[in-house]
Structures are given as C-alpha cells and as structure tokens.
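Lab meeting notes turned into a lecture example. A postdoc, R.K., suggested we walk through two folding results consecutively so the class can see how the record format repeats. The first protein's sequence and structure tokens come next.
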Amino acid sequence: MPCLNGVQQITVSKDGKISLGWKATVPTSGTPVIGGGVMWITDWHAAMLYLLDPATGAVISELKVGDLPHFATPSLAQGTAFLPTLTGVTAVR
C-alpha cells in the first residue's frame, strides 16, 4: 500500500483484522504493481524505478528512469514494464 512516507505491506485476515508488515527502506511515491515475481514502484521525486521483493520489501534492483510525472505507475505486459516519463515512455525488461 502506498503511504506518504513509502510503501508498507498490509495483511487483512479472513475476519477483517488489518495488520502491518514490512516497510520499504527506499522512498517511494507511486502505486505499487506486482508482476513477474517482483513489486515495481516509482519515486517520482528522484526519477527512480525500484523492484522490491513482495515478501520482504527488500530492494532487488533500482534504475534511474528520467523525470516522472506525479503518480507515475508502471504497466506490465509480456515481461516488460512500461513507465510514463515527462519525455515519453521507458520500457524495462
């Protein structure tokens, strides 16, 4: 779940109880997307794309992608992430 100060895992039990899990150690400002076994999330302040382990929140990889619009969210298709930038679209495999 995106939060003002990064992304944090939440779990909702069958009885509706919400519990907090890991919190990412990198600053993020976008909405997370899960695909290909990883979580893709952006930090538009720093023009970064992060790949996180969805089970632990640990950083798997990070990539400078260029200036991002606010709330930039990757779209995933056939093993590629497409990310809108202020100058076009960046594709990452």
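The second example is placed directly after the first for contrast:
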Amino acid sequence: MDNEKISNKDLLDIIKNGHLWPASKIKEHLEKLILFNSFPFNHDFGYDKDQNIFYVHDDDCYLFIFDRRIEVACNRSDGPSGNQTFDHTINSENDILAAYDHFKSILAET
C-alpha cells in the first residue's frame, strides 16, 4: 500500500481494528485462493464455537486465521513438519499466498 490509495473498506478496517488485516479479510482472500487452487486438496473451513477463529482442516493439518497472522499446524507424527506449528505474519496478499503455499507443502509431505 505504499503509493496506492487506501480504499474505504481498508480504511474502515484500519479504524476498526487498528490494522489492515483482520481475520475476516484474511479468510476472504484465502477462500479465493482455495477456490482457484489447482491441487486436489479437500479443505474444510471451520469456526470455533464462538465463530471468532476461522480455520482450514485437511489430513491432520490446520491453518488457523487470526488478525494479522496465519498459524499453520501439523498434527501428524510423520514427515519433516510433523507435530510442528509455524506462524506467518500477514502484511499483504502475498503473505497470505505464502502461508497457504506452506500449508499445501505440509499436506504433500508423507
């Protein structure tokens, strides 16, 4: 956003949340990435009981969406990423893509 004009929606996010990337906006961008994904993964979106935390679940791997960050966790015991959690700070759409690509790479581990 260096030399770009800030949209009214982005300005509202900054005023409401103190930052540009609330969880709902990250989820919206992530849904678009998943929709146009060419890989045969079968992701399920979910919500915690209070619907405050969005997450994607696939084969014992999770992608949790929080304000300004994405957490990727692998609960499998096998593979190089087994039983690990990785944190991705979100400052742009490219960061969302990088976190999702990381999630897909963990899913591909066997």
